[in-house]
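Take our chain:
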Amino acid sequence: MARGPHPHRHDAYIAVGGLLGGLVLIGAGLYTRTRHDPVSVLDQDWAVALPLLVMAGCELLRRTRPGPALLVGTAAVVADLPTRGSLATLVMFTDLVYAAVLYGRPAFARRIPWITGLLTVVAAVVPLVAWRTPQALLLGVGVALVSLVPAATGWVVRNHRDTAVAERLRAEQTALLADMDRAQAVLAERSRVARELHDMIANHMSAVAIHSTAALSLDDPETSRQALAVIRENSVEGLAQMRRLIGVLRDSGDERPPTAAPTLDGLEALAEAARGNGLEVTLDARHGKVPTPVELAAYRIVQESLTNALKHAAPGPVTVTLARGAPPGPPRHSDGDGALEVRVTSPYGHRGGPRAPGSGAGLIGMRERAALLGGTFAAGPEDAVWTVRATLPLGDGEGEPA
């Protein structure tokens, strides 16, 4: 706990109030012991006022210097024993014990209840053994009221305060973690939408860019007419898919998805569209039934691979192969284990015709799709052939071979 150099305002009020109350008691002749008490060796008023003044000064330090204040206050209580005694001095001492436990350093605060408890036991047992009278126990009760009770009270209050602080910190940490989770969820959703948008639109926009370049570069009306037909077809399809994606985003609160996700049954239509754009596509799909997440990822990987082949591949055959295989990683012995292997090859080399620019986002998206399913992804040239290879685990028994 931070401790300032100046006394707390409330501590000053306590010190002034205790001092004034003690002086009033002295002026009224009210003491804790009578003049004829054998313990009261010093029966002058100044002898009572001196410990009272010291105790009031200690109250100024009850919050800023609780340890030294308690030690000096204990000395003041001992000095008050030979006098007629002041109730205000004892009351302020109990407050010092309470404050030392509440505001003191943890190690120091833990020791005070044990020390006061030991003093209480000694104050009760020693007089009982020495005087052999039950009234001797009252001395232990008095010591307990002055020291043990305020120490125990301070310890209980400190525990409640520390618990409240810990709960507040835990709540703040929970809120911070919740904010981080929300931020990560938003980032993941943005990445998913970016992948879907790229995979759905890039194919059509690439075809539009390539055929429009061809139409502008060739002075042939028939070629230009065919190119414009392909451009229109891809523009209409791309616009339709864009509208579907916007519908998904707008209706995300609905329990029913507005459109069905593409499946591997649509690979033939995808290959036919690629053939219409000028690619020589051969499709070999022997995948059987696979889980929906794997089906969507495989479809998008094939779609993006064909888009890249349209933009960058040299003239020649493009082969798309889907088959079951072993999952990546160490071998497992479950009958349901398996993986879908996706392989797309296209000619790699100089391309003489028009090309569409690429940003590299397609490769990143394919790699992310494979990683989200715990699979592997690789793309690069292999013997003058550009090869895209992805291995997507199927999970436990979710797909059966056809």
In short: The chain has a mean pLDDT of 81. The domain at 262-402 is CATH 3.30.565.10 (Heat Shock Protein 90). The chain has two domains: 9-173, 262-402. DSSP finds ten helices and five strands in the chain.
